Structures are given as C-alpha cells and as structure tokens.
Amino acid sequence: MKAEKIIKDKQLEKVSLVVKPANLARPYPDNQDFDQNDFRDFLLLRNNVFILILLLVLISTVLIIRPALAQENQEKYLVEKLLVYVDPSIGASEIFEKNIPFAKFVSDPAEANVIVEISRTVKEGQEYFQIKFTGKNELSGKDYFSELTLPPNTEPDLVQNELARMIKLGLVLYAGRTPEASRLKIRLEQEVKPTAVVDPWNFWVFSLSANSFLNGEKSYSYDNFYGNFSANKVTPEWKIRLSLSGNYSRDAFDYEGTSYISSSTGGSFRALVAKSLGEHWSVGAFINITSSTYQNIKISGKISPAVEYNFFPYSESTKRQLRLTYSLDVGPAYYREETIFDKTREFLVRNNLSITLELKKKWGTISSSVEGSHYYHDFSKYRIEFNNDISVRLFRGFSVNVYGGYARIHDLISIAKAGASWEDVLLMRKQLATSYNYYFSVGISYSWGSIYSNVVNPRFGSGSSGFSMSISY
C-alpha cells in the first residue's frame, strides 16, 4: 500500500511539472471549447467598466470644482449695482455722476452700499486729503483708504476734479464685485506736467444783495428796506469774512382821524480774521461796529482778539467738533438817549467764553453750545446762553427735529431811561428790560421719492426732490 501511494505521488509530481502556465495575455484558455460570443461580451463589459470609471472621475471633478466656482461668482458679484453716498461737504455730486458712470450716487446714506468720507489736513504747507471708503450691507467689511496731496491754495475746481478722480479709483475695487466689472478697462495715461494755479480773484468771493417789502391798506402801511454786502476768503491757512448791512423800517397808521408814524433804522459792519495754527489751535480777531434805534445805540465799536481750541482735529470738522473759544471785547459805546444807568457814552470791556459741540452721524446731527459773558466794570452785568439743535433720522426719509435755547440776561446796559411808549412796545421799536428769553421748536419731516435725485439744477429756482412735510408747534 505504501509503495502504491509513493508511485501515485510521484506520478502527480511529474504531471504537475509538465503543466504549462496559463497565458495571461489571452482572455480564455486555449482550448477547443472557446466561444466567440463570450469574447464579444467580455469586450463590451470591459468598455462599460472603462466608461463608468470615466464618468465617476468627471462627476467627482465637477463636485469639487463647482463649489469653488460658485464661491468665486458669489464673491465676484456681491451686488447688482454700486450705490454710493458721498459726504455733501465734498461738493456738488454732478461731477461724480459725470465721471463715474459705473456707480449710482444716492442722497441718503441708508440707501448706499458704499459711503465715501473725506478729511483734510495741512502739513508742511501741503494739503492732504484722506479718502475713506466704507462698505455696507453686502459689501460690509470691505473698507479702503486713499490719500491725495495737493499744493496749497489749489483752485477749488481742480480740487473737485482730483477728488473725483481718486474716488473713481477707489470705487473700482467695489465695481469689481458687480456685473459692471466685465465692462471696465484700465489704462495708464502719459504723465502730464502740472501747471501753476492762477486765480484772478485770489480766492475772494463777493456777494451783494438788496431787497424791499412794501405792504399797506387804507389805514395802514409798512415799508422795509434791507441791503447787505459781503466779502469772504477761506483757505486752509486763513479765514476772512467781511459784512456790511443796513435796514430801514417804517409803519404808518391812520385811525379815527389820528395819524401815527414810527420808524427804525439799523446798520452794522462785522469782520473776522482767523489764522490756523495746526490741527487744534486758531487765533484771530473780530471787529463789530453797530448802530440801532431799537437798542438805543447811536454807534458802538469793539475789537475782539480771540483764541480757539478744537479738541478734535480740524480735519474731522465735517464729522465732529468740540470747540472752546475765548474772546475779549474792547471798545466805546455812544447812546441815543440817556440810559437807565445815567450814561450817554462809556468805554466797555467784556469777557466771552463759549464751548460748542457739533456731531454729524449717519443717524442725524446734533449741535449744542454754552456761552457766558460779563462786563469788567461790573461783574453783575452778565449773560449765559444755551442753544441746542438736534435732528434724528428714525428711518428712511423720516426725521425728528428739535431746536431750543435759553438765555439768562443781566447785561442790558443800553436801555433808554425815558422808557418806551405803548406804540414803541406794540411795534417793538425799542428794547425793553428783561431777565431772560427763550425759544423752542419741535417738528417732524418726511421725504420720499428717487434716491438718485441729488443733482442741483438752478433752473426755475431751487427745490428738493420728492415731497416733504413738516409739522411743528
């Protein structure tokens, strides 16, 4: 038995040695039972597997790339239209509308998705403009800064054009997020040498006005005439304001055969010369010459040297100010009639101190001031005044406005000793003694209409867009 088993094992070993390895290059064994239909089915199966693998690769690629493309398109077209609000203190909006066609300029910051603010400083004889671009709503968080440097006393029109150019460059960054991006082209212009700025008026602006009002009936007539001339020069370094005005009023009554005529006159010359001393300090002087029948003043004159400190930089004056101002009035006064203090003339010296806060925000504006003054010859002759103006924007187009003031008065030294007749009192021809005065006004305003109508057109007079309504009491 063992011998037979060994023989069989050897036979199997011999058989295994003569077996040919399978030909891996052929799909089926090389035998006579090979079927051509089976070979065709195999080729079809192999092609289907290859197509299936290719489809899986394509689908995977699309699933990976599509979110990135969607995110890119979402980033590229964040808004359909660029709505821009430009600080009105910069100037008229027509120049921006004309030079920046890929943006719409709105009159309400609440409607904008980009807000442009400008601050100006003077350093080393040069004017520096810092332009701030603030994104809102869909563009929130996308803020930019740009700067513009111009020589001193640059012509205002040139300043406007240069600011428009810089604003246009800054808005291109936002326009790239709108469909207008496909229509934008950027090119480099050849360098143009700057030319000297020549202003034949040397930055002086003059104004002349005159008006009259005549009113009457059978037993009453009223005539009023008023004229004014002003000359102003404002540069970053200097501020000069001159004003000359005069008025005449006349009332005539005829009642039951009795006639009464009352008239009053007044005039003044006012001047301010101020010099900038950096970002916080200013010095200057006021000149005031006055004549008034109402105040019993034949003529009075005073010169007032003054100094002012702004706790915020003057370059931020379009947004906020906190000014502390001190002035000293010095000059003579001549009265038409003897005063209640038995004076027909006197030389006066008075202290003035005021502090003013002005804030301009997106929600509205606020202005508050406190002013106090007293005469040196008698400290009991003093005055304290409080004034407040507040305008709050509650929602689009709707604002609440509050104005009020109060004065504590103990400095009326020009009151006529002879007093006033009942006609003078009724017609307010003479100033009466008082220890206080006040005013108060509250109202609401609402406007609606096109948010793009911020272009000024002088034809047929001035007016505002949309419709406005106000109620006050």
The gyration radius over C-alpha positions equals 43 Å
Number of helices: 5
Largest sheet: 13 strands, antiparallel
What share of residues is helical? Answer: 10-25%
Order of helices and strands: HHEHEEEEHEEEEEEEEEEEHEE
- In whole angstroms, the N-to-C terminal distance is 133 Å
Low-confidence stretches are: 5-34, 68-75, 453-473
Strand content: over 45%
Topology:
Layout lengths: L1 H17 L17 H41 L6 E4 L7 H6 L4 E2 L8 E10 L2 E10 L8 E7 L5 H20 L28 E13 L3 E15 L3 E18 L2 E20 L3 E12 L4 E14 L9 E16 L9 E17 L2 E12 L6 E14 L2 E12 L12 H6 L8 E13 L18 E6 L1
What does this entry look like structurally?
19% of the residues lie in helices and 45% in strands. The chain has helices at 2-18, 36-76, 94-99, 156-175, 422-427, and strands at residues 83-86, 104-105, 114-123, 126-135, 144-150, 204-216, 220-234, 238-255, 258-277, 281-292, 297-310, 320-335, 345-361, 364-375, 382-395, 398-409, 436-448, 467-472. Residues 5-34, 68-75 and 453-473 have low confidence and may be disordered. The strands form 2 sheets. It has a 13-stranded antiparallel beta sheet. A 5-stranded mixed beta sheet has the order 2-1-3-4-5, with helices on one face. Among the domains are: 42-76; 83-183, 2-Layer Sandwich (Double Stranded RNA Binding Domain), CATH 3.30.160; 278-472, no CATH class. The chain is of the alpha+beta class and 473 residues long.
What is this structure, in a nutshell?
By secondary structure, this protein is α+β, with helices and mostly antiparallel strands. Among the domains are: 42-76; 83-183, Double Stranded RNA Binding Domain (2-Layer Sandwich), CATH 3.30.160; 278-472, no CATH class. The chain has five helices and 18 strands.
